[in-house]
Design goal:
Largest sheet: 5 strands, mixed
Helix content: 10-25%
Oligomer: single chain
Order of helices and strands: EEHEHEHEH
Strand order of the largest sheet: 1-2-3-4-5
Strand content: 15-25%
Structural class: alpha/beta
Shape: globular
Number of helices: 4
Length: 153
Amino acid sequence: MTAQHPAPEVDAAGRTAPARTPGAKRLRVAVPRADALVVTVDGEIDATTTDELDTALWPLLDATVEVIVLDLTGVRSMDVPGIQLVTRSYMHTQDHGIALRVVVADDATRRALADAGVDVLLECHPTVGAALGITPGSGIATAPEQRRPAAMS
C-alpha cells in the first residue's frame, strides 16, 4: 500500500502553502522557484519521526526539481535515526541528479552532523537564502553550480 500525499496548495504568487505531515510533526514544503524545493523540518528528528518524514518527502520530487534545500534551523534535536535520514536524503538526491543543500544554524545540529561524519558530504549553509544562492540585500538569486553525480565508468 502506498501512502497518498496531496499536492501542495499554491498561492497567487506561485508559492506553496505549508504542507504538514499527519500528527504532531512539523514538515513544510515550499517551492520558491520552479527548480527548487525547500523542506523545513521543525522539532525533533528521531526514531518516531524519520519514517513519516521519509514518506512525506520523496513523493514530492519530480523531473523539474534540481535543488532541494533541507532547512534544519527549527530542529531541536537529532539522534542517530535523524542522521540516517539526512544521509539517506543525500544519497537519494545524488542518485537522482539533485543538489541537496542543508541549512544548519544550530550548533547542536551542526555538531551532530559533524560527529557522524556526514558534514563532509553535505553542502551546508547558514540560511535558506544562501542555500538558494540569493545575494544578501539584493533578493537576486545567483546561479551556484549544481552538483550532479559523476557518470560511472
